[in-house]
Amino acid sequence: ACTPADSKTYDYIVVGSGAGGIVVADKLSEAGKSVLLLERGPPSTGKFNGTQKPSWLSGTNLTRYDVPGLFNQIWADGVPSCPDTGVQAGCVLGGGVAVNSALYWKPHPDDWDVNFPTGWKSTDMAKYTDSVFSRIPGTYIPSKDGKLYLQQAYDTVSKGLDSAGFKYVVANDAPTSKNMSYAHPAFYIANGERHGPLRSYLETAYARSNFALYTDSNVRRVVRTGGHVTGVEVQCNGGNGHSGTINVTPGTGRVILAAGTFGTARLLFRSGIGPTDILNVVKGSSTDGSTMISTDQWINLPVGSNVNDHVGTDIQISHPNVVNYDFYGAWSNPVSADKDAYLNKRSGALTVVAPNLGPIAWTMVNGTDGKVRHIQWQMRVEGRSNTAMTITQYLGMGTTSRGKIDIQANMNTRVVTAPYLRDAADKQAAIDGLEAMRGYLSKISGVSWITPTASQTSQAFINSVPATVASRNSNHWVGSATIGSDDGRTGGKAVVDLDTKVYGTDNLFVVDASIFPGITTGNPSAAIFIAAEKAADRILALAAPAQGRRFKA
Ligand SMILES: Cc1cc2nc3c(=O)[nH]c(=O)nc-3n(C[C@H](O)[C@H](O)[C@H](O)COP(=O)(O)OP(=O)(O)OC[C@H]3O[C@@H](n4cnc5c(N)ncnc54)[C@H](O)[C@@H]3O)c2cc1C
Questions:
Q1: 211-214 and 35-38: which strand pairing?
Q2: Would you say 219 is a known binding-site residue?
Q3: Distance from the alpha carbon of residue 89 to the mean position of ligand 1, in angstroms
Q4: At 8, is the secondary structure helix, strand, or coil?
Q5: DSSP letter for each residue of 110-168
Q6: Domain boundaries, the chain
Q7: Is 347 helix (H, G, I), strand (E, B) or coil?
Q8: 264 in contact with ligand 1, CB cutoff 6 A
Q9: Which of 119, 149, 175, 413 is the most buried (most CB within 10 A)?
């Protein structure tokens, strides 16, 4: 049943329990602050009372979010998706880190040094990186018995990479080796179950008496007078949700938005923060128009205009040695020996992240504009035949193209400009990277090409895949509320300052993927955890807003 808000106040209200929100909420509560973490979605993993599971998991404290071999089934009934977001995203406890493939990479120094402003360079991030990796060590051997399972595709492709001159690394022991290198995929899995922030930071936060978590509680907008936020408006989403206005501690309390690249942008827009044309859409809407904060209090910032994502291009090969395991069948009819090995020993094929990833490889391309671009090659056993592998080229760190998101009158966010291959140098890097990889993969004896076909040039192939969300989406969206010292109110790109505080406010912050000025080399969640630890430190070091400022515009 829905619970109406009471008069309790919090030093910090954190909106969204994803990669950024969980970590920042834990660090703030560890410092003794009272913290409320608000999540719009329902519980996910078993540890936090999730319930979605196949019958063979009944009686266990596990759900489909916990068991790696069931990750294909996470979306089966649509429960975790965010229907108002325009792209795939997880609207459950844990956000992206509950629904993703749990791939986990210690960032390459360029991820900070090229993209981030002063104070957020790789040397500044080193201690937070150590902290994150001590709390979430990750592993490339998910099975508790220490063995790797279903390695046929991995073995086949890695032999080809060896003969092409690639170097094998243990990825998180060698984060700087991201050129002509490959690794076993690394995951935040422990004891054969999904680990990550849900099983580390959230558990420690949850054990503290100064921490509260409300699931099924959707924040509609922040309540503010001028630049000072007093609380948030919450709508109950059923389940155990809460509703009403929840306030921060008068004078000193703060609100942290961690609702993801789309969710945070939506909250800012609905709170009168963003480009005027987009705020006018909110003002014209039937849901928000009559109650929206008045135009004289709008804060004009470039929210939504610097978004980025890995540029995803799928190629497919096949090889007679590749074996396709029926992970979909594992939902209702698991191989009984595999089910027993999982239930009794947390070992075996069901500890393999569905749909079974092959080697992950990295290359770098020198751009025609003089800038280096990083590519991650992510292989999985899935495709047009039972012996096919799909290999996604993730063109990432160093790309210069950016896109834009906005909000529609029904309060759904959407991508208005996709961030893919808009600049010539990005496109050329995708072509050059592919051309080289085709050569490397041809070293695999017995390989056949599905796409591109042998007669198609790499240029023709890259050009044939539309630069749209439908064709290129990599689920790694960043950048709708970019961090920087170039204040967006006066022509800069930044929405938040170096303390992650929204420009023009004195107690509103953003701590999630939105603040990333550009995409990382690998899948981004580890970098988001690290950034969230760093942000917590900077926020805690800030003096409280001066009393009396709170009623000024
Ligand atoms: C299918 C998929 C696979 C992926 N695979 C990987 C991978 O293997 N490895 C990796 O590193 N990254 C992966 N990613 C990306 C990674 O999960 C995201 O980059 C990361 O989770 C983003 O963190 P965040 O904190 O910005 O937002 P999120 O993790 O999306 O969290 C935002 C949270 O805020 C909540 N929320 C939103 N709006 C509101 C509101 N108004 N009120 C209350 N709560 C709200 C959401 O429900 C959500 O829980 C994947 C993403 C997806 C979708």
A1: parallel
A2: yes
A3: 6
A4: coil
A5: HHHHTTS-TT-SHHHHHHHHHHHHHH---BS--STTS---S-HHHHHHHHHHHHTT-EE
A6: 3-103+211-307+478-544, 121-196+309-405+420-472
A7: coil
A8: no
A9: 413
CATH of region 3-103+211-307+478-544: 3.50.50.60
- Whether ligand 1 lies within 6 angstroms of the CB of 513 is answered as yes
The CATH code of the domain at 121-196+309-405+420-472 is 3.30.410.10
Q: Is 184 a catalytic residue?
A: no
Identity of the residue numbered 125: M
Of ligand 1's listed atoms, the one at least distance from the Cα of 74 is 1
Angle between helices 276-283 and 260-270 (to 10 degrees): 70
Distance 416 CA to ligand 1 centre (A): 20
Render each residue's pLDDT in the chain as its tens digit; 553 residues: 899 999 999 999 999 999 999 999 999 999 999 999 999 999 999 999 999 999 999 999 999 999 999 999 999 888 889 999 989 899 999 999 999 999 999 999 999 999 999 999 999 999 999 999 999 999 999 999 999 999 999 999 999 999 999 999 999 999 999 999 999 999 999 999 999 999 999 999 999 999 999 999 999 999 999 999 999 999 999 999 999 999 999 999 999 999 999 999 999 999 999 999 999 999 999 999 999 999 999 999 999 999 999 999 999 999 999 999 999 999 999 999 999 999 999 999 999 999 999 999 999 999 999 999 999 999 999 999 999 999 999 999 999 999 999 999 999 999 999 999 999 999 999 999 999 999 999 999 999 999 999 999 999 999 999 999 999 999 999 999 999 999 999 999 999 999 999 999 999 999 999 999 999 999 999 999 999 999 999 999 998 775 545 444 3
Ligand 1 contact via 103 beta carbon (within 6 Å): yes
Amino acid in the structure at residue 222: V
